[in-house]
Amino acid sequence: MSLNKVILIGxxxxxxxxxxxxxxxxxxxxxxxxxxxxxxxxxGTVVPERTEWHNxxxxxxxxxxxxxxxxxxxxxxxxxxxxTRSYDDQSGVKRYVTEIHADRVxxxxxxxxxxxxNTSSSYQQQGNQNTQSVVSGYQQPTTMQSDTSLDMNxxxxxxx
Length: 160
What we know:
This protein is about 5% helix and about 50% strand. By secondary structure, the chain is mainly beta. It starts with 5 loop residues before the first strand and ends in a 24-residue tail after the last strand.
């Protein structure tokens, strides 16, 4: 059994790039920055803050939500899958791009200075159905149910 799932919490680096196709389909792309805090070891060694940039790709029913609400600087919680694709650049060199294909996008904040008085909004893709929830205060995570979901209550499926 294998699982390809990514959960990221970070800040949007620029306004999303939205593209519409003749078929009516749309895709949104934006960078998301995640950071690990810097710290000092007991021996005095300083480990600086480290920021990673992730290419987020949003398709189908999530695009209108991203287009309307997500802006540069937005704090987001993103769930999705890692996908790597390759292409040949102008000089014929093979290049690789790693992207996060989002299944769920949700506003996230640490609790101070939340937008809309501590309100959290999420938009989740579930097959062809959309689930949008706005909860004041704490947001209880919603789960995506499918035939391929893991049964975490079954001890027989544990690898150890």
